Amino acid sequence: MARQEIIVRTGQLVLRPFDKSDLKAVESYFGLGEVRRYLDWQLRDTIDSKAALDVIRKQTRLTRPGDTVTLAVVRETDGALLGQVSLQWTDATAAQGEIRLILNPTFRRRGYASEAGKALLDLGFERFQLHRIFARIDGGNDAAARLLRGLGMRLEAHYLEHALFQGEWDEELHFAILDREWQRGDGVREISRNKVA
Amino acid sequence: MTHFPLPTEVIYAPDYPLETARLRLRPFNRGDVDAVFAYRKREEVAEFLFDEPMTHEECAEAVRGRVGQIAFAGEGDKILLAMERKADGLVIGEVSLIWRSMADGQAEIGYILNPDFQGQGYATEAGVALLSFAFGAAELHRVYARCDARNIASWHLMERLGMRREAHFREHARFKGRWDEEFVYAILAHEWRERD
Questions:
Q1: Would you call B144 and A174 a contact, using CB atoms and an 8 Å cutoff?
Q2: Cβ atoms A133, A125 nearer than 8 A
Q3: Which of A74, A90, A157, B49 could form a disulfide with A174 if both were Cys (CB 3.0 to 4.6 A apart)?
Q4: C-alpha distance from A195 to closest chain B C-alpha (Å)
Q5: What's the pLDDT score for residue A32?
Q6: Nearest-CA distance from A139 to chain B in Å?
């Protein structure tokens, strides 16, 4: 039976599961400190990009709470892999999910993250019927905060010195959006791989 | 003075009893069941707690469980103290401090006051004493508290204690059959020392 893999097409992007052949692209951003910091626990302790790719290649479905779907963000025109997005199902009773977006610095400031973010929220609210989706970022990451606000997410928490991270006090922001606050984006359609020629 | 035997391997413990102008914060004992039942049986007290209103028997069990929770020996340990009025020895509520992280110096503070004694500043008095211990002898870095957004008395108290609202979560969880709305308040050690 064909696997119902998640593929999402937006204006300029295709979000699709990772493949073994994506290693070089993953290496180009995975080693960056700013990227590693907000990876989920399965990836945070992963030393090399190949091991990380092995983990995210398998993150293709949300079967039970705790599961994560990770998708490669690919530019449609030239097939360049720009980064990755993930959606974790954190709570079943309250239908909660957490999103993470990573964009290779080379491809930033061109609206790709926003486009991928919209598609990710659509996926969470439409396909997975979540009630609330949240994102956590470092307090100093202004670009990420602007991005999340741009997606319509509200600042819900601003933690100061609530934990030590590599010997320094951490500052963390939480953004969130409820299903009824989310406006479904235009031009986002989702198809399954086995339906494509 | 009553002697309160501490468990072995204690790292931090208040010097009991913790005294304020009108209160003694001291370990629970088995004689506290009736006083605890007087407020834990009430609907309006249970409304914002994880527990439902308690029977006398459940209170007896809860009090038994609290007797030894008086010191920090490791992460997750709880200090649960009765709020006793000096004037008449009446237990009018309880306060708690939970050691959430040893490495990061984090703790969570909590309190329950018998509604008959609200509005007289007792909870603030107890909160100040517990935070003084938290940032003094216990050398903590940050203390936080959580409450239901509708529990106005609770977050007003946190603000009186000089705590900042750090989070306002909407519908992030289910609580007693409905959507939860939660505030998180916090205060850092330096903020506590520098408060007016």
A1: no
A2: yes
A3: A157
A4: 36
A5: 77
A6: 13
**Binary contact (A158, B171; C-beta < 8 A):** no
* CA distances (Å), origin A59, targets A70, A185, A195: 5, 24, 21
- Indicate the residue type of B155: W
The string of DSSP codes covering chain A is -----EEEE-SSEEEE---GGGHHHHHHHHT-HHHHTTS-HHHHT--SHHHHHHHHHT-B---STT-EEEEEEEETTT--EEEEEEEEEEETTTTEEEEEEEE-GGG-SSSHHHHHHHHHHHIIIIIS--SEEEEEEETT-HHHHHHHHHTTPEEEEEEEEEEEETTEEEEEEEEEEEGGGPPPPTT-EEEEGGG--
High-pLDDT (> 70) share of chain B, %: 97
Cα B108 to Cα A70, B71, B141, distances in angstroms: 34, 14, 11
Q: B48-89, pLDDT tens digit by residue?
A: 888 899 999 999 999 999 999 999 999 999 999 999 999 999
Structure tokens at A190: 């989702």
B173 and A91 within 8 Å at the Cβ level: the answer is yes
- The minimum CA-CA distance between B146 and chain A, rounded to whole Å, is 12
ipTM passes above 0.90: no
In this complex, which of B101, B142, B166 lies closest to A157 when CB atoms are compared? B166
Q: Which of B144, B169, B188 sits opposite A156 (nearest CB)?
A: B169
CA–CA dist A112, A73 (Å, integer): 9
- Chain A / chain B CB contacts < 8 angstroms: 56
Do A158 and B166 make contact, defined as CB atoms within 8 angstroms?
yes
User: Can you give the pLDDT at residue A2?
Assistant: 47
Residue from the list B167, B169, B188 with its beta carbon closest to the beta carbon of A161: B188
Which residues numbered 119-138 in A keep a CB inside 8 Å of some CB on B?
131-132, 134
A32-71 pLDDT, tens digit per residue, is: 776 766 666 566 666 688 888 999 999 999 999 999 999 9
Q: Which of A132, A161, A174 minimises the CB distance to B171?
A: A132
